[in-house]
């Protein structure tokens, strides 16, 4: 698992931090990256402030293989992401001809005037690769290892479908889950013992409540399906012996 | 708004980053802090790694008035938060008598043995103030300006109810939302013009899709209800003039 490429996400939006909107892009990205064999190691939610975006992009792009951003692209005054990401690389963002063409065709097809405000959506940093937006045309972009996508979930998800095939993944991380109506404390020692037998797998336990009872999901993660099945069987046996 | 106390959140859990679990504590905390007049300025989701927790706690506690953590407390081997938060302050976490008493009574009342694994939930840093857990007893704690709470939503929310009254809030941030079936680009210029008239308020626009049509939520935020109503009226008038 350590050999897989790493990624970080930056969710940009005051509306998430104010509690107005519930982000769903992090959960979506996390699942897709796991399937693709890329390890998401951190996510940050930050406000729509230029310097904050610049600092966060620079802090993370140096530390992981890929940075994915969500939100803050679009025509309005609070959408400063394209400029901020460009600035993080010491570049500027202007209305690029390829992006301009996409939008002008789109607006023309809908009989909508291409106002300056609308054309701001064509602002892309120099040297960036466009990310296709099959939902609402206004493109995202990849600049170096930073992939800038929209915040609207349907658009974010469509853009991600365009980006992921370009990225080299590692071995997909698989998991096995054992759900039981026993408290975490009941199984901690057994879990620790079995985990020690399988250094190549990662073990976690996640408590839940159901009808006022406590339960625990024991999760084993790794890239080797056979080893996962073996460890799952070992864990099940150890727990049933203990319960007997 | 700038005068309000600031906060950051740290969501601790590999299960969020792997996409296995969808976090709901950030959205809950964000709403409660807004009502309490505390500005959430950043949230980070990090893995269950000791050094990562130490570094993140130290980076954020120096920058905001309050840090709230979610997850990584409990009896199992991957729950290292109490130790890591203590270490961030140069302290250690041990089984404290007050926490031990809480748990022993609880286990006794349920006829459960107080095993070493279970008693790990009584580990609290020196000098920390316990956070009551009416759901499942194992307490959280406040150490300096860092408030350490469980990840299970029902427990996190109950703990937060215990912590918030202790914290000095500022003026609650209120908002007004104008929902319209016009694209962001259609209203960007008007929004910008009205926003310029009200420097004490913050304006945002958030696109959505409905039945294949594009709409936008225009949101005005501030602490002065009268000013908010005035700005909302001004924005409505400007938009209807434009549509006419």
UniProtKB/TrEMBL annotation, chains A, B:
Alphabetical list of InterPro entries matching this protein: CinA, FLAD1_M, MoaB/Mog-like_dom_sf, MoaB/Mog_dom
UniProt cross-references to SUPFAM superfamilies, sorted A to Z: Molybdenum cofactor biosynthesis proteins (SSF53218)
Domain MoaB/Mog: 8-171
Record Pfam families: FLAD1_M (PF24102), MoCF_biosynth (PF00994)
Protein name: Molybdenum cofactor biosynthesis protein
Native source species: Allgaiera indica
Lineage per the UniProt record: Bacteria, Pseudomonadati, Pseudomonadota, Alphaproteobacteria, Rhodobacterales
């Amino acid at each position: 698992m350590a050999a897989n490429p790493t990624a970080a996400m930056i969710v940009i939006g005051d509306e998430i931090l104010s509690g107005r909107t519930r982000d769903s892009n992090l959960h979506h990205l996390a699942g897709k990256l796991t399937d693709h064999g890329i390890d998401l190691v951190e996510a940050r939610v930050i406000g729509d402030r230029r310097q904050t975006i610049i600092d966060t992009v620079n802090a993370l792009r140096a530390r992981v293989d890929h940075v994915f951003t969500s939100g803050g692209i679009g025509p309005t005054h609070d959408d400063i992401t394209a400029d901020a990401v460009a600035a993080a690389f010491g570049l500027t963002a202007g209305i690029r001809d390829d992006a301009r063409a996409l939008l002008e065709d789109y607006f023309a097809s809908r009989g909508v005037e291409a106002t300056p405000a609308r054309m701001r959506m064509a602002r892309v940093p120099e040297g960036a690769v466009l990310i296709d937006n099959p939902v609402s045309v206004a493109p995202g972009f990849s600049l170096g290892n930073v992939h800038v996508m929209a915040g609207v979930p349907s658009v974010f998800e469509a853009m991600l479908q365009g980006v992921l095939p370009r990225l080299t993944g590692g071995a997909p991380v698989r998991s096995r889950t054992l759900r039981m109506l026993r408290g975490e404390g009941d199984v901690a020692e057994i879990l620790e013992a079995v985990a020690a037998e399988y250094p190549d797998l990662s073990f976690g336990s996640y408590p839940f409540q159901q009808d006022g009872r406590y339960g625990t999901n024991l999760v084993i993660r790794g890239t080797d399906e056979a080893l996962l099945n073996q460890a799952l069987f070992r864990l099940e046996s150890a727990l049933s012996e203990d319960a007997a």
